[in-house]
Write a structure and sequence with these properties.
The protein is mainly β. Helices cover about 0% and strands about 45% of the residues. The strands form 2 sheets. It has a 5-stranded antiparallel sheet, with no helix packed on it. The protein has a 5-stranded antiparallel sheet with strand order 2-3-10-5-8, with no helix packed on it.
């Protein structure tokens, strides 16, 4: 409600939050989490690190780090435009394994600077045994209609395999 110079209130106006409600509770907010291709995913290698991402014959995403950087996000796979609503609790699930024991950093963050880490999952230890990961967090920051899901693996040389990535919230 607004007040004009005569101290008269106007009618209230609906507030729109973009298309954030297009995906409801329990539905996957990640597009192409089964990796039929790399469509909707982005791969970035820092100038001091070298690597690649590709889809294996088994339909998994393989991230190869040939030359490691000093930060996890020096080699990263990410997806943009993930809507997250303040005070909602989210569950991230994915399958992961590697060619050797290593750590990765997984986070849901603000896509632009200062890249606020909404999820605060920390580092995850990965080994040669495929495991299903389930991480939960509550969005404590303001609603963000275009957050970024990041898998950072640039600190260690080797191959990392991802599949079945999903992010959902419950009412």
């Amino acid at each position: 409600t607004a007040v004009n110079h005569l101290n008269e209130e106007s009618d209230s106006s609906p507030i729109e939050i973009g298309q954030i409600e297009a995906v409801g509770p329990g539905q996957n907010l990640v597009t192409n989490g089964h990796f039929q291709s790399l469509e909707n995913w982005n791969f970035v290698a820092h100038p001091d690190a070298h690597g690649s991402a590709e889809i294996t014959q088994a339909g998994e995403c393989m991230i190869s780090t040939v030359s490691a950087g000093t930060e996890f996000d020096h080699i990263r796979l990410y997806q943009d435009s993930i809507p997250v609503i303040q005070d909602k609790t989210y569950t991230l699930r994915f399958d992961v394994y590697a060619d050797q024991t290593r750590a990765i950093e997984v986070k849901l963050q603000k896509a632009s600077s200062p890249h606020t880490n909404y999820s605060r999952f920390g580092y995850i230890s990965v080994n040669t045994q495929k495991k299903s990961i389930r991480l939960t967090f509550t969005m404590q920051s303001s609603t963000d209609t275009s957050a970024q899901l990041v898998f950072g693996c640039g600190r260690f040389i080797g191959e990392l395999f991802l599949d079945n990535v999903s992010l959902s919230y419950e009412d």
